[in-house]
Design goal:
This protein has two domains: 5-130, no CATH class; 210-296, no CATH class. The protein contains four helices and eleven strands. It has helices at residues 5-23, 90-235, 264-273, 275-278, and strands at 29-35, 38-45, 48-57, 60-67, 70-76, 79-80, 247-251, 254-257, 260-261, 281-287, 290-296. The strands form two sheets. Strands 1-2-3-4-5-6 form a six-stranded antiparallel sheet, covered by helices on one side. A five-stranded antiparallel sheet has the order 9-8-7-10-11, covered by helices on one side. 11% of the residues are buried.
Length: 300
Amino acid sequence: MKTNFIKYSALIAAVAFTTAAGAQTKKTAKKAHTSYGYSNMYSSENGDGKEHIRTDENGKDYELTLVNGKLTELYVDGEKIPESKFGDYADFIARMKEQIKRDKIQAKKDQAQALLDQAQARRDQEQAKRDQEQASRDQLQAGKDQEQAKRDQEQAGRDQEQAKRDQEQAVKEQASARLDQEQAARDQEQAKRDQEQAGRDQEQAKRDQEQARRDQIQAKKDQELMKQLISDLVKDGIVPDEKGLHELTISTDGMKVNGKQMSADVYSKYKSKYARFSGSSIRYHNEGNSRGISINRTDN
C-alpha cells in the first residue's frame, strides 16, 4: 500500500490555517488536498459533511465517498463497487477512516500550532520592529557618543597643553620663589645689619649729643677765656679796645694781632696764661658784623 498520510495531514493544516478565520461566517467551506495519489475532498453544508478520498494500495486505485463518516461510494480501478460488497473492503475502509480521524486531529493540532506560530511571528515582528527602533536609537546615541568622545579628546588635548603651561609656570614661580626667599634672607640679614648699625648710630648720636653738650660748655668757656684774653690785650696796650681787635692768631709758631707778629716775651706770656689756646691753633676774627673763634686743637 502506497499511501502518504503524513503529507496529507500537513496539507490539511496548511489549508485550515488560511481558512479558519472565515469558516464561522460562511455557510459552505471547501478544502482540497492532493499528495502522491492520495486525495481528500471535504465539503459541509447545513451540517452534512461529505468526503472524497482517492488513494492506491498494492497497485490498485481506490476512490471513496463518505457522508458524515459513512461510506456511500467506492471505486476500485475506476469500477464502482456495489454497497452489498462494501464488506469485502471493511479492513481497508476502517484503516482509511481511522487514518482520516487521526489526520483531522493532527490537522486541528497543526492549525492550533499554526495560530500560535502566527501569534509568535507577529510578536517576533513587533519585537524586530522594537529592536530596529532601539538599534536606530543606539546608532543615534553612538553618533552622539562619538561626537562627545571627539570633544572629550580635544578637551583632553587642551587640558594637557594647559597642564604643560601650568607646570612650566610652576617651575618659573618656584625659581622666582627661591630667588625671593634668597632675597628675603639677604634683606633680613641687611635689616639685621641695619638694626645693628642703627644701634651704633644711636649710640654715636648719644655720644655726639654728649659731645655737643660738652662742646657747647667748652665754647662758652672759650668765649669767656677769649674775653679775658682781649681784656689783657687792651690792658697791655696791644689793641685800644675790644673793637680794635680785628684778628688774632696763636699757634705753636707764635702770636699775631691784627696781622702783626708779637714778640717772644708777649707770646711767652700769653702762651703760659692761655695754654688752652696756645696748645692748639686758634684764630679770632672781628670784621663788621662777623665775629668768631676757630680752634684747631690737638688736646684739651
